[in-house]
Amino acid sequence: MKIRSNSAAFTRARIVKGLSQRELAKRSGLSSSYISLLERSVKTVGPATAKKLSDLLDQPVDALFNIE
């Protein structure tokens, strides 16, 4: 099972929340380069991290991520 971001939805949610990639990284404990890779769907993410990011962005997990 792989979890990838829905690029457009993830980026839109971050921007609507008023966060830069760097600020989202800081709040989530991830690196800004990892956030960038997630936004481009280059990297997969674990379930706990997907949940943490969706909580920070006030979006349901299934709106921001696709399970493959």
Characterization of this structure:
With 68 residues, this protein is mainly α. The protein is built from five helices and two strands; from the N terminus they run E-H-H-H-H-H-E. It has helices spanning 7-16, 21-28, 32-39, 47-56, 61-64; strands at 3-5, 65-67. The chain has a two-stranded antiparallel ribbon with strand order 1-2. Helix 2 crosses helix 3.
Low-confidence runs of at least 5 consecutive residues: none
**Looking across the biggest beta sheet, what order are the strands in?**
1-2
How many structural domains are formed by the residues?
Answer: 1
Rg measurement, Å: 10 Å
Level-2 CATH architecture: Orthogonal Bundle
Write the layout of secondary structure elements.
Layout: E1 3-5, H1 7-16, H2 21-28, H3 32-39, H4 47-56, H5 61-64, E2 65-67
Antiparallel strand pairs: 1-2
Helix pairs in contact: 2-3
List descriptors.
68 residues; 59% helix; mainly alpha; 9% strand; 434 Repressor (Amino-terminal Domain)
Task: Briefly characterize the structure.
The chain is mainly alpha-helical.
